[in-house]
Write a structure and sequence with these properties.
Helices cover 8% and strands 46% of the residues. The chain has 182 residues and is mainly β. The strands form 2 sheets. A 6-stranded antiparallel sheet has the order 2-1-11-10-9-6, with no helix packed on it. Strands 3-4-5-7-8 form a 5-stranded antiparallel sheet, with no helix packed on it.
Length: 182
């Protein structure tokens, strides 16, 4: 009887132990690719989910689509996602200067300049040590506009890019998506 009781307690104990939960796939942590003005954005940075996080006075997620002083006809676009941890600030930016963005078009992200499109990833440690990774002529990426509701000022799209720092280290931005009011 003792053996049977011991066996029953052992089986119950083992069956009650929680099994290790499977880790969540990083891509499943990103917001869905919507086109409703959900004010969401995210991407993978070197395979890890990168989402707005932490406190920033101006916000940790922003989208602008303007033309200098003329806020009606957009030509300058940027989407910015930022994270702040204890001693570290990270930001990912996709920027297009002097170009009206058209639904269905894919734009090459290359070097920074007056009429350019580019991607960048910036890390700042202890508010002083900055490392900037940027696309350039050979290290590139893409921005694709999937929706633009001009009347409601909603812009949605996808992006990816590789960016390099001054030491030649590369960061890979993948599966980027945004659905923002501007």
């Amino acid at each position: 009887m003792k053996n049977l009781l011991f066996l029953l307690v052992t089986v119950l104990s083992l069956s009650c132990c929680s099994k290790d939960e499977k880790p969540i796939n990083p891509i499943d942590q990103l917001p869905p690719a919507t086109q409703t003005g959900a004010n969401t954005a995210g991407c993978l940075v070197d395979g890890k989910a990168f989402l707005p996080k932490g406190y920033f006075p101006d916000g940790n997620l922003s989208c602008n689509y303007i033309n200098g002083k003329d806020f009606i006809n957009g030509k300058d676009f940027n989407i910015s996602i930022a994270q702040r941890n204890d001693n570290e600030t990270l930001s990912m930016n996709v920027i297009s200067y002097n170009k009206s963005l058209i639904v269905g078009e894919t734009y090459q992200l290359k070097e920074y300049g007056a009429d350019s499109k580019f991607g960048e990833y910036i890390t700042v440690y202890n508010s002083i040590q900055e490392t900037r990774y940027s696309t350039n002529v050979t290290i590139t990426g893409e921005l694709k506009i999937t929706n633009h509701n001009f009347d409601k000022a909603i812009l949605s799209g996808t992006f990816w890019f590789d960016a390099v720092n001054s030491k030649g280290q590369i960061v890979k931005i993948r599966e980027g998506r945004f659905d923002m009011e501007y």
